Amino acid sequence: MKITVYKKAGCPWAAAVIGFLNELSVSHRIKNVTTHPHYAKEVEEKSGKCISPTLEVDGEVLADASVEDVGRLLEKAGIVI
Question: 17 vs 30, 80, CA distance in Å?
Fold first, then answer.
């Protein structure tokens, strides 16, 4: 499973999602749209918006994701939570 988290600096929702992934030892890549404007453009092209956090999981985009959203997605992928 390939997970990319697009986040804005200081976003508490992104911090919660990243913390959740870390707690479960789920590998992921973080792209900070605040410090790297090209990531902001990239996520906007993929989702139509630049909302934090937005996840891309195996090519599927999940904008404005919550911990609960990510948990459901991981369970669907067979990862036990």
Answer: 11, 16
